[in-house]
Design brief:
This protein has 212 residues and is an all-alpha fold. It has helices at 14-26, 29-48, 55-64, 80-94, 99-110, 123-137, 146-155, 161-173, 185-192, 201-206; strands spanning 4-5, 8-9. The chain is 58% helix and 2% strand. Helix 3 (55-64) crosses helix 5. The chain is globular, with a radius of gyration of 18 Å.
């Protein structure tokens, strides 16, 4: 029987069940609950905006978006967003979903920390970002009702979430500081990693091999 939270139905399909179990196995409860909330917030925002979206694709995008922070799936040679995006595409390919739909999910994860641009793309891409922004940054907080928020948080609690998610970000990216150049995660390392020095776009230009 399909689960429903805040009026949002969790798709009752083999794909969704397997995605849920995979994320539950590799992610911390913090990341698991956050990812489920991202799907729920994204669905609620999509419904309010009158968007038509594929709930299975949105679910995989939401559930896999932070897998690059997990110990078993994170790498040190690329942005953590790409770790999760690559894992989602592998998962979808293994389930016979290839081509543009799989690429759409990849993009939804790869761009979820890039402000504004995803909101002008396909609904699934936009809604992963809207879900993340609502849960982490509070953007759109008042676009869902008190009752909807209470229902979502009752199903997937967020105790001490602000400090805990910042700690998870720090742990997941501190071994690849160069990958934060030009993106919001540099702020995390600047706050929590002693000695971190963010890359400077102007210095890169001035220090390039071009003579002038």
């Amino acid at each position: 029987m399909s689960e429903e939270i805040a009026g949002v139905r969790i798709p009752d399909t083999a794909l969704v069940r397997e995605a849920t179990e995979m994320v539950r196995d590799v992610a911390t409860p913090l990341v698991f609950d956050h990812s489920r909330r991202v799907f729920l917030w994204g669905s609620l925002r999509g419904r309010a905006l009158g968007l038509t979206f594929d709930p299975e694709l949105l679910y995989v995008g939401a559930m896999f978006h932070d897998l690059g922070l997990t110990k078993s799936l994170r790498r040190t040679d690329q942005r953590f967003e790409i770790d999760g995006a690559d894992e989602a595409r592998r998962f979808l390919h293994a389930h016979g979903i290839t081509g543009e739909p799989a690429d759409r999910v990849w993009t939804s994860i790869a761009l979820h920390t890039t402000p504004e641009i995803p909101l002008h793309m396909a609904p699934e891409i936009a809604l992963v970002t809207r879900g993340v922004e609502l849960d982490v940054l509070g953007i759109g907080y008042h676009e869902v009702t008190d009752e909807q928020r209470a229902s979502v948080v009752a199903a997937h609690p967020r105790p001490d979430f602000k400090d805990q998610i910042l700690a998870a970000f720090t742990e997941g990216i501190q071994d690849r500081p160069d990958t934060t150049f030009g993106n919001v995660k540099a702020d995390v390392l600047a706050h929590y990693v002693p000695g971190f020095r963010r890359g400077d776009f102007v210095e890169v230009i001035k220090g390039s091999a071009w003579p002038e």
